[in-house]
DNA sequence: GCTTGCTCCTATAGTCGCTGGAGGATGTAC
DNA sequence: GTACATCCTCCAGCGACTATAGGAGCAAGC
């Protein structure tokens, strides 16, 4: 019996799926852990922390490469946190833009749905708006 | 000289990239057009309309399969538009949920960025919040 | 007619961040 | 000892494109 946390426990504790933990190891986001005699991965508490960090970052919409940078920063606490700040700020700008875009989108979808008189397709506002971009007031970016 | 619109022109007119037009043909979203003697695709105005419809639908965040349904509906104008209405309503629900999620995200990112004193990583609010989910007030879903 | 240079063709592989399945080995509880 | 959960590797697939290689077509200028 080896003393180390099995991948399933780590998965449960961190909220990252087992397959995803292995995937993170594969892409070098998480160091390859030691193995049992039988070849099973054994983790420790640090790994759970790291995976929690990754999961939370992913939930905040950071890309893997950005998380890589953030993790490197975390490993070197004496360094300036300017990079972390820059990454977070850039993400904030993205999020604001996306909210604006989705709000415009919401308005257009509401217009479509409200205008639909539940009749035939030939007079359907939904189809009509999709077909004719001229009827669209808002300029939408990637939604 | 054949009379038909070249893929480049269709792309320009519809706002769909040339490679994407070919991709749509490949997945059966757009019918394969006739060709010139030299083997080049020749389109007509209907195709531009269809591609514009597709592009606009994609901008509104509809999935390819949903667009397939919407296009089929458009082709049979006598039919009830209930399906189109259902698809649009479902998308509206998704968009509203996403806006809510992103707004929570925005708040958390602002908290991170505002709290960062631009010092060392060891006292960086950004890193700290990412590391410790307990400091996160909001429960975030997919952002 | 010939060359320049743009547009177009096919086919295939890559992007991102996972997710799922096959087929088998290991560990544990009774 | 045996049933069962968990783990292993490898590889394929998702959605919606995007990019690259290596050509062929075609219009305009000289």
TrEMBL record, chains A, B:
Designated name of the protein: Helix-turn-helix domain-containing protein
UniProt keyword list: DNA-binding, Transcription, Transcription regulation
GO molecular function terms noted in the UniProt entry: DNA binding; DNA-binding transcription factor activity
CDD domains in UniProt: HTH_CadR-PbrR-like
Keyword Transcription regulation: yes
Residue ranges of domain HTH merR-type in the record: 4-73
Organism: Devosia oryzisoli
